[in-house]
Amino acid sequence: MNTEKNFRGQRHPDFPVAAKELLQDVQLRQNVRHATDVITAKRAHVVDEMQDWQTLRDAGSAVRQNALDHLDRYLTQFEEACIRAGGQVHWAIDAAEANRIAIELVQAHAAKEVIKIKSMTTEEIGLNDALAQVGIHAHETDLAELIIQLGKDKPSHIVAPALHKNRQQVRAIFQREMELPELGDRPEDLTEAARVFLREKFLRIPVAISGANFLVAETGGVCIVESEGNGRMCLTLPRVLIAIAGIEKVIPKFRDLEVFLQTLPRSATGERMNPYNSLWTGVYPGDGPQEFHVILLDNGRSEILGDAEARQTLKCIRCGACQNACPVYRQTGGHAYGSVYAGPIGAILTPQLDRFRQSASLPYASSLCGACYEVCPVKINIPEVLIHLRGQIVREEQETFAGKIGPWNVGMQIAASLFASGDRLALAQYLGRIGQKPFVASSGFIEHLPFQLGGWTQTRDLAPLPAQSFRQWWAQREKTAENSTHTKAGGQS
Amino acid sequence: MRISLFITCYNDTLFPGTGKAVVRVLERLGHSIEFRPEQTCCGQMHWNTGYIREALPIIQHFVNVYRDAEVVCIPSSSCVAMIREHYRKAAIESHDTRFVADVESLLPRVYEFSELLVKKFGVEDVGATFPHKVTYHASCHSLRSLQLGDIPMRLLRQVREIDLVDLPRPDQCCGFGGTFAIKNADVSSAMLADKVCDVRDTGAEVCTAVDNSCLMHLYGSLHRQHFPVRTMHLAEILASEAKTGADR
């Protein structure tokens, strides 16, 4: 995988450019709006009924923070426990190494096909493409991932990767790819088609690849939660099971799941509990997979861990609540982010994973409204991390000549010098009143502004600076008061 | 009580009427107001855009100006949020122990305008009359950072002759976000379009808020589209008295 580009190996336009194009797609915007409205309403309903929700958020945050603060210890503990239970543990420093390990494991069983459980981590490392390059076909078995795979599309949401597609669009993909011209568009029709399509693969293919929701250090167990049961098929039917998980997925104790199995489903899908909660530990003779591997993936996570302010990014349990709540994501959908991880979490995670190579525009893809932080079940202060990352981007830009003389830096330096004293601000206000004259239209408003500021006037008018600033009015009032000591004048405008 | 007014840079420059209204309301309640002309900006624009190094002297300047103030009143929830959420960190990063101590001592004395009235003074009825149909837009910072809850609405409900209508989806951002409105002008405009439609659908004559930044954004679009809705800062409604009506 070429991490010099982004981690899917594709170049992608900056967020504002990609967003502008996607905003023209009326159908996509309707789909995204409808889906996020439905999920946020469901979430609000099942969160509001929890009297201890804020306590659960605090607990989840504390457990995840503790896990990250002592990650080395918990990972070693997990490895030992997993091996003791009959599993095998592999360590991968980056996407390329993780893919190589996975390929070798599949090839060791001479398999030409694998079945897969929905996993954002395998999307992150581009596993399907890597497998395809050596002639191994990966079948996605999660319904939404299947839609994405058959539609040759990309996921647009962490939990609901095909959220940007509606039923009719899904039917069209299934009709074409499954060769079912008579297929209806009722949910029952579509799930039945997927069921028939997938069942044959569950029964035939002996190697499965999964991600992981949680790795339990204490027991060496792996946990996956899902809604369809297709994951459960992959976890139980094949002979060989390979789980690929980011190193941050570890939690210290089995009982920590008590918190997350409450907060994750409510945050992710608005369900009180996931329909399928799978937990498995090692290998049991005669029951389930007889060979079990875990690939622990770093791929930039250690570096994030080393940044005290950004470390909280890794607390994420991939519920997607921040995406559904985000007013930016709700307008554009996930593809604008050009990243496997979209929305607010993507805007902080992706730039850190790829060191801003293809994603320096993402930390700015937020109005800092704070809706993401409000819903986050592990209390990641996303706005704070966004600002921290913006700070890194600005510092890097300022080290280049082009960045130094760029309009943003020049404008900000000038503004900063004007804010150094009240007199300077007053002078700027005076100059602004003179300088704005050519821009004030016959309506009395500013309708066009040059350069970067034109972004404002493309859809908005701007009232010009009034003749008198507040500080001038105040000075005048003081003077009047001095002149006539008894009058409490000046209050009228 | 002597209240020191931090008018904020953009209110000073663009919305002096808001400052005058704050003065009128507070004086009507019997307080004395001071305005320190050395004041400039809270540093929010620089900080939020990532110009942290440039924000530090602005923050330091704010703290120096208000170090000995009894109470600081700010008619902008986003500036108060900047101060409450980021000044500590800025001070700690400066490794200046006096700066840290100054920030710690100043923070409890900083109030957003409506918060000052209701939380500190326990006043909800400020004697205002405003015979118009009004809807209230809860800015993100007032809602999530300051957790103002229904404080602005409690003040509005006491205004005589006012016809208050709820704005649907009050938790949705208007799309301003400071430099976001320029850096991501298209997405910002899409968010704004939704908010403008919501405002229009209420049938209100006036949309109010505790942040002129959101209102400037909203009015920019309302004016462009010739929707006959005015925007007014909460303070301007609270300053209105019988017969004088709206001031803008």
Q: Topology, please?
A:
The complex is a heterodimer of chains A (493) and B (248).
Chain A: H1 15-22, H2 26-48, H3 53-69, H4 71-84, E1 88-92, H5 95-108, E2 113-116, H6 120-124, H7 127-133, E3 137-140, H8 143-150, H9 167-177, H10 187-204, E4 207-210, E5 214-216, E6 221-226, H11 230-236, E7 240-246, E8 250-251, H12 257-268, E9 276-280, E10 291-297, H13 301-305, H14 321-325, H15 327-332, H16 343-353, H17 371-375, H18 382-398, H19 401-404, H20 407-418, H21 422-435, H22 454-457, H23 470-483
Parallel strand pairs in A: 1-10, 2-3, 2-4, 4-7, 5-8, 7-10
Antiparallel strand pairs in A: 5-6, 6-9
Helix pairs in contact in A: 3-12, 9-10, 16-18
Chain B: E1 2-5, H1 9-14, H2 16-28, E2 32-35, H3 44-49, H4 52-66, E3 71-74, H5 77-94, H6 97-106, E4 110-112, H7 113-120, E5 133-136, H8 140-145, H9 151-157, E6 163-165, H10 180-183, H11 185-202, E7 206-209, H12 212-224, E8 230-233, H13 234-239
Parallel strand pairs in B: 1-2, 1-3, 3-4, 5-6, 5-7, 7-8
Helix pairs in contact in B: 4-5, 4-6, 5-6, 7-9, 11-12
Q: What does it look like?
A:
- The complex is a heterodimer of chains A (493) and B (248).
- In chain A, 49% of the residues lie in helices and 10% in strands.
- With 493 residues, chain A is of the alpha/beta class.
- In chain A, helix 3 crosses helix 12 and helix 16 packs parallel to helix 18.
- Chain B is an alpha/beta fold and 248 residues long.
- In chain B, strand 7, helix 12 and strand 8 form a beta-alpha-beta unit.
- The mean pLDDT of chain B is 96.
Summarize the structure.
The complex is a heterodimer of chains A (about 500) and B (about 250). Chain A has 23 helices and 10 strands.
The fraction of residues in strands of chain B falls at 5-15%
What's the quaternary structure here? heterodimer
Query: Order of strands side by side in the largest beta sheet of chain A?
Result: 1-10-7-4-2-3
* Average pLDDT of chain B: 96
Order of helices and strands of chain B: EHHEHHEHHEHEHHEHHEHEH
The low-confidence parts of chain A are 1-8, 489-493
- Largest interface pair: A-B, 69 and 71 residues
Largest sheet of chain A: 6 strands, parallel
Shape of chain A: elongated
- Beta-strand content of chain A: 5-15%
